[in-house]
Amino acid sequence: MGRAEADPLDTVYSGSKAALRPLHDAVLAKLQGIGDFEVSPKKSYVSLRTSKQFATLGPGTKGRLEVGINHRGAPAKGRLEELPPGKMCTHRLLVTAPEDIDDELVQHVREAWQAAG
Fold first, then answer.
1. Is 80 inside any structural domain?
2. Entry pTM
3. By CB count within 10 A, which of 15, 29, 71, 98 is most buried?
4. d(Cα 100, Cα 70) in Å, to the nearest integer?
């Protein structure tokens, strides 16, 4: 009998970051309606991808969940912040509470998903 495989998210959300796991799970649940995509855990974040990565989820600074978005040319608006060139994503949204997992967040991720093809 083999040992059950560990959940890779237990590593991403360990220690002081464990409190962000429920927000992560809630964001993923909310995004299920945008269409088909793959969820690929990495060492310190989770990649959301179709043929290419369109978003990331992971612990940010100051106890916030960071939703990174790859959507070149999208204007920064509302809570959507444009990131400096050279970062893994072009934009980000910060999630600190369940109320932040709203239609604005879903719309920005949906637009990045559509642009990724």
1. yes
2. 0.91
3. 71
4. 19
